[in-house]
């Protein structure tokens, strides 16, 4: 499992719980599927392959899926999203371009920021329109980008799934990308389970963390359970 450190590991069910996307959709989008005589290709090949024929996602897949699912939910077909991914991949050399910070919006268009070098060796920025004007994207992209920390290359580094104030973090370099309390780095599932068994005060004592960390974990995991039940 050492090769998964810094990559993250999620089943479709775990990814669906975090993203509020049905597990079946995630499997279809990443495995491909057939309707009648027509075969629909996967949106992309997942980062993780454990050799057992099952679908697994890495952290970058999770972030890519987060954006793709929003587009699809707003009426963009999965295959059109796939086409945009292929185009963006070719332009910026990123295998999972939707999850980078290269995207901008003017309210109706999705624009990909591309740095080009002219014949004099000078760099310039150009914006490429990936989708037509019939979609409204500002309200999709802006909230998604605000909860991600990017590295210097513009790749997603960490995700705050309930917003930064909630202090719950998804970091592929810690706990295989499972949600953790950002103050203590203890997985929220562990703290919440301990609180159910021992109570918040005792759970905090056993793990040597503040009671506020346990309470945050309990609230976060309860929200995740509500998503699954909805």
Question: Could you give the topology of this structure?
Answer:
Elements: H1 12-19, H2 23-31, E1 33-35, E2 38-40, H3 59-73, H4 78-92, E3 103-105, E4 110-117, E5 123-129, H5 138-146, E6 148-150, E7 156-159, E8 168-169, E9 180-181, H6 188-198, H7 200-207, H8 211-229
Antiparallel strand pairs: 1-2, 3-4, 4-5, 6-7, 8-9
Key attributes of the depicted protein:
single chain; alpha+beta; 3-stranded antiparallel beta sheet; two-stranded antiparallel ribbon; 8 helices; globular
What's this model, at a glance?
The protein is an alpha+beta fold. 41% of the residues lie in helices and 15% in strands. It has a domain at 149-230.
Overall 3D form: globular
What is the number of helical segments per DSSP (H or I, 4+ residues)?
8
Rounded mean pLDDT score: 88
Head-to-tail CA distance between termini: 33 Å
Low-confidence stretches: none
Summarize the main sheet: 3 strands, antiparallel
- The string of secondary-structure elements, in order, is HHEEHHEEEHEEEEHHH
Q: Per DSSP, what share of the residues sits in E-state strands of 2 or more residues?
A: 15-25%
Instruction: Please compute the radius of gyration using only Cα atoms.
Output: 19 Å
Helix-strand category: alpha+beta
Main sheet strand line-up: 3-4-5
Fraction in helix: 40-55%
**Strand tally:** 9
């Amino acid at each position: 499992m050492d090769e998964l450190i810094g990559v993250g590991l999620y089943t479709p069910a775990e990814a669906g719980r975090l993203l509020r996307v049905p597990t079946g959709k995630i499997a279809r989008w990443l495995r491909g599927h057939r309707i009648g005589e027509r075969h629909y290709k996967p949106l992309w090949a997942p980062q993780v392959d454990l050799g057992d024929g099952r679908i697994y996602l890495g952290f970058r897949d999770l972030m890519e899926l987060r954006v793709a699912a929003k587009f699809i939910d707003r009426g963009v077909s999965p295959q059109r999203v796939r086409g945009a991914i292929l185009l963006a991949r070719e332009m910026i050399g990123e295998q999972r371009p939707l999850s980078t910070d290269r995207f901008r919006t003017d309210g109706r268009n999705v624009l990909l920021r591309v740095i080009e070098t002219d014949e004099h060796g000078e760099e310039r920025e150009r914006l490429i329109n990936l989708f037509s004007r019939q979609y409204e994207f500002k309200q999709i992209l802006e909230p998604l980008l605000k909860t991600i920390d990017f590295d210097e290359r513009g790749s997603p580094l960490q995700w705050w799934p309930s917003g930064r104030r909630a202090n719950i973090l998804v970091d592929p370099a810690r706990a295989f990308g499972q949600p953790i309390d950002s103050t203590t780095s203890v997985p929220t599932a562990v703290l919440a389970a301990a609180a159910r068994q021992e109570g918040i005060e005792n759970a905090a004592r056993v793990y040597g963390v503040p009671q506020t960390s346990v309470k945050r974990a309990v609230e976060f995991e309860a929200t995740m359970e509500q998503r699954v039940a909805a």
